[in-house]
Amino acid sequence: MADTVNLNELQEFRDTSQQLDQKVQQLAAMVSASNHMIFYTGAGISTAASIPDFRGPNGVWTCQAQGRDAPACVSLVTAQPTGTHKTIAKLVQSGKAKYVVSQNVDGLHLRSGLPRDKLSELHGNCFLEVCWGCGADFLHDQEVGSSSSRPCSECRQRVPHFCHCTGRKCPKCGGNLKDSVIHFGENLPKHDLKMAFQHASRADLCVVAGSSCRVTPAADVPETVGNNKNANLVIINLQKTPLDNLCKLRIWGDMEEVFSKLAQQLSLNAPTQVAPQPARQPQPQFVVRQTHKPVGGECGHEWALIVEGPEVESVVFKLHPTFSPSIIEERQAPFTVCRQGWGVFNVHMLVTLKGRVAPVEIDHYLQFDTPEVQKQHFV
To answer: Which of 167, 161, 206, 169 is nearest to 37 (CA)?
Structure first.
């Protein structure tokens, strides 16, 4: 938030080319000698993916504090992992790094190939939906978010200032599914926090990448390593951090350049930068089409609802209770319900897609002013 930015501490520092080479060589030696290495990452590792940071000279909160427009941000759906993300993933996949603790919600660590069981996302993930009841979670390829502007009774008890309900139900226990993004004043996810501190207590090397280390309790993770006299804390960031006095090695350099050099030192052959990718336009996963025609007598209209899409496995139609039956489940294409009547009402549908556990819940309000209407649905 803007009020967390110190406008007197925006200055960035950079090592000379020679200093940077020497420091990266020193870092590579630390990595090779470590037995339990962890990473602690912040927004600075995603700026090369055109996702702005928060407290940098052109960060989102810095601009707000200065009364400037926030910088443009690429859609998180189309954002690609950077060379830094990929180098970190390779170090974890090779077993050299044991764990990653991240403050980022952009989902790029998982897209880079980092295993989920090697990652704590302390501030959540824009693509992750969770159930507070049974603990189940569901990762999507589109962002999930709250469907309400007012806190429901459940959210009011746990996070009183924000409603996290997505409008969908957990297929395992029937509870309300929530988005996983953590807002200021909310508790961090218990399991992720527990795993973060377990690995911090065991770490002999912690590399901080692109974080100001100012947001607690997340920043307590690298501080734990810094306070361990038998461990090394390394900080890679262009701005000063409150933990600089605890680190054994301080690198002032561009993130992509540092990790490119580190990958070369360790023979990881990681790309120096993300190859330009054409913007990926999200494709509709299914279409809801309604047709109708007038009929004689008291019925008024004959209408049909059709759900179409190659990923659709089944559809449950919930009609007005005056219809019998009022709940119809279709498990084979065409997924269609056809009825006659004169009144308009809302039809609630549960659409199950291939590869997804939780059905997609949508509503369609019958319309009789045009012969046919259709709507594309992106999930």
So the answer is: 206
Listed residue (243, 185, 267) closest to 42, CA to CA: 243
What span, in angstroms and rounded, lies between the C-alpha atoms of 31 and 96?
A: 8
Task: Name the average pLDDT for the chain.
Answer: 85
Report, in angstroms and rounded to the nearest whole number, the Rg of the chain calculated over CA atoms: 25
103-114: burial string, b at 16+ Cβ within 10 Å, e else? bbbbbbbbbbeb
Alpha-carbon distance of 327 to 357, in angstroms, equals 21
- Spatial distance between the Cα atoms of 246 and 374, rounded to a whole number of angstroms: 60
- Answer whether 111's CB lies under 8 Å from 81's CB: yes
> Listing from the earlier edge strand, what are the strands of the sheet with 346-353?
327-330, 312-318, 346-353, 360-365
- pTM of full prediction above 0.70: no
Q: Residue 345 burial by CB count (10 A; 0-12/13-18/19+): exposed, middle or buried?
A: middle
Predicted confidence band of residue 225 (pLDDT cuts 50, 70, 90): very high
**In this structure, what are the phi and psi dihedrals at residue 27, rounded to the nearest 5 degrees?**
-65, -45
Residue 225: closest CA among 40, 35, 48, 378: 40
8 pLDDT tier (thresholds 50, 70, 90): low
d(CA 131, CA 294): 45
The string of DSSP codes covering 168-226 is EE-TTT-PEEEE-PPPTTSPPPHHHHHHHHHHHHH-SEEEEES----STTTTHHHHHHH
d(CA 120, CA 131): 17
Q: Residue 359 carries which DSSP code?
A: P
Measure Cα distances from 269 to 63, 85, 152, 172, 209 in Å: 37, 13, 50, 42, 19
| CA dihedral of residues 123, 187, 145, 57 (deg, nearest 10) | -40
Amino acid at 73: C
Per the annotation, the verdict on 123 as an active-site residue is yes
| Sheet order of strands, 205-209 included | 119-121, 97-102, 37-41, 205-209, 232-236, 249-251
**Of how many residues is the chain composed?**
379
Q: Which of helix, strand or coil describes residue 110?
A: helix
Please give the average per-residue pLDDT across 177-193, as a whole number.
87
pLDDT digits (tens, 9 = 90+) for 355-376: 776 788 888 888 777 778 888 7
Contact criterion met (CB below 8 Å) for 351 and 330: no
Set 109, 123, 164, 292: catalytic member: 123
